């Protein structure tokens, strides 16, 4: 059901004609209200009901004044820097690209992600219990299955869940990447189809969702001095006790445990049928334990990694990134660490013996210790 100012919108076409229609983009006014909807907004807006496409939904949401104001507020908020191993540091869980984690506020204080350029971070929170699930979505084909995974442990509460969408930018607006006076042609346009798929799947769900933040695409785009489009926010953290979301970045030690292996899973999972249409399982909610689910790779990945490692830094950016002008400074270094691991460990069974997960327990000082 779609709520506007806390009131349900009538789902029948007959009922809709007896009500005043609120402001709606002209290309949507011809769509009739004919089925229940599951996307809820904080501010008045009339969206098409069941059957609306992701493109129509994104257009309506992107221009909504209340959502624009919310995006401006989060962009103006100071960035939180997350560091691990410091005395008194809050207990946190970090997710990489294509991963998700559902956390219990009784066990975890912060949950977040960063390094998002064309990817989109999704937060779904049950306000009654504080249970919070976040994911780092990177491809439309994992959205439907990934959202089902995120909802599994949030409960079947009748109350709407809060949703925040953060990340991605208008990467289709720039067809040329400029650097050091040179121009490199790069096919772009990853964020938009991903965002369309996310809102479309949320919209069609039987669960009600209260959209709190829509800091994506044009609402999350800046331009550098060379004219390249960039995301304003590439990382965020959620305070599990309150649900407050703020921009964030994580140092290398806080992107743990098992950082390199988890980065490798992102690359190889596309070729592992186990993970088709699914987000990578990483964290055990009930036990506050990281269980890095296994992924396999072919022996020739070592040869591929060796070849890629011969590329120059600029070539690595152009060939290995969906947004070469927007990547953080450590992107190339991270890629080379992945390749070095694959070169030294060509057999996946050395990393995941018997295709079993790698398990890490939290230590008293806030770090992680491998259990198996």
From TrEMBL:
- Entry-linked InterPro entries: NTAN1 (IPR026750)
Pfam families in alphabetical order: N_Asn_amidohyd (PF14736)
User: Per its UniProt record, what PANTHER family does this chain match?
Assistant: N-TERMINAL ASPARAGINE AMIDOHYDROLASE, PROTEIN N-TERMINAL ASPARAGINE AMIDOHYDROLASE
Q: What is this protein called?
A: Protein N-terminal asparagine amidohydrolase
> Which organism is the protein's source?
Urochloa decumbens
